[in-house]
Design goal:
Elements (H helix, E strand, L loop, with lengths): L2 H10 L3 E5 L3 E6 L2 E6 L6 H10 L3
Antiparallel strand pairs: 1-2, 2-3
Length: about 55
């Protein structure tokens, strides 16, 4: 999955950009945080796990 597609899904669910990490960008929604790898293509298993975890 492309990084921008995953970020778009997170933002539509109410997550906002929090900060840059070393290798990840951190998106937050209240007290929840999700780290998104800074790669153009994100591994399908990881993307599906994030989507399933956040009910996107």
């Amino acid at each position: 999955m492309k990084q921008r597609d995953l970020i778009k899904r997170l933002e539509n669910a109410g997550f906002v950009f929090g900060r840059h990490g070393n290798n990840h960008d951190v998106y937050v929604r209240g007290i929840e945080k999700e780290e998104v790898p800074r790669h153009k293509e994100i591994d399908e298993r990881l993307a599906k796990a994030i989507i399933r975890k956040r009910n996107l």
